[in-house]
Input
Amino acid sequence: MKRRITVLYPIAGLPVGGTEQQLLELVKAIDKRRFRPIVLNLNRGGPLEPEFRGVPGVRVISLKRKGKYDFLALLKIFAILRKLNVDVIQPFVTPAVFFGILPAIICRTPVKIVTERSGPGRKKGARVGYRLYLIIEDFLTRFADVVVANSEAGRRYLCERGINPGLVRVIHNGINLHRLSFDEEKVQEIRHKLNLAPGSKVVGMIASLTPVKNHDTFLQAAAQINRVMPDTRFALVGDGPLREHLEGLCQYLGLASKVTFFGDQHDVGNYLAALDIAVLTSNAEGCSNSLLEAMAVGKPVVATDVGGNRELILHGKTGLLVPPRHAEELADAVVTLIKDETAVTSMGQRARNSVVTRFSIESMVDQYESLYEETLKKKAKRASAQSSIPSLKGQEL
Output
């Protein structure tokens, strides 16, 4: 029987987030007869860890680092690579690239894959330690066999950072439609919590409450929409370090009774179904799960024209694109859709068709499986060719 390919996925942690959800979908769907997936959580626990541990055929290892700069974790990863005979290592998210690729280079792990998830939008004003991680990651990425971006914008960004274009592959995110099923009774419960007037609309955003998602612009636009359509309600699904700030901004803008914070939610399908229009105000994006999931449920989307968003949305057909940090243009776009029921319905249907045909989970997993097998074969062939070259030592020239 042919030995299964062991793939190790180091990841910084397992919170509720787009990158973590994509990894979860990948290890759920990967063919366990051909691959042995191992998720290496650099930290301890996390909201999604129980779900990872519940996937048949997937092993989860938690390193339980004592802090961001606990470099003793490197020694543990050396041991894991050797003991488990890892064939492919594919870290996700800073600092997993540093903690994964460096030991893999030293241990001569056959295939090293780096993934770029965010597109052009690394943290500006980040602390010195984080910036140092990024500098080291760029250096280590040059030793990778393949660098995977989840958008064409990400590919361009990698090349701008000096990564060899020949190493870069684009594999867009895939969406698991079964995860987006919804219960109409629960959907109505969610809408009831929003205190909706008859015929009023819900505009919402599903994203972590972090700086890059720029919820400030969402709330500023909500204030403008509220002046024109006071019965409109706004929903924010997700949590993060900016929650207190955003709740304060709601008070300042007079939106306290109009905006509901739902926090992190696993049954995302119910919350998407409760929306009439989905919005994403990010300053940077690679291939946004939030947009794809909203589109898959048939919701018209309004998103900032950044990163990979223009690869997902055909402006005027499957959604609307607006400049980042422009609350007035965002508000105008949302109001335009609210006033045009026909456009909302047709745009939502086209959006769903686009996701079903272009961004299936099956397509994403097939591409990763092929990448692992093809790259391993190339490396094995190259190693075999090098070993067959006769040594000239001791021979007369």
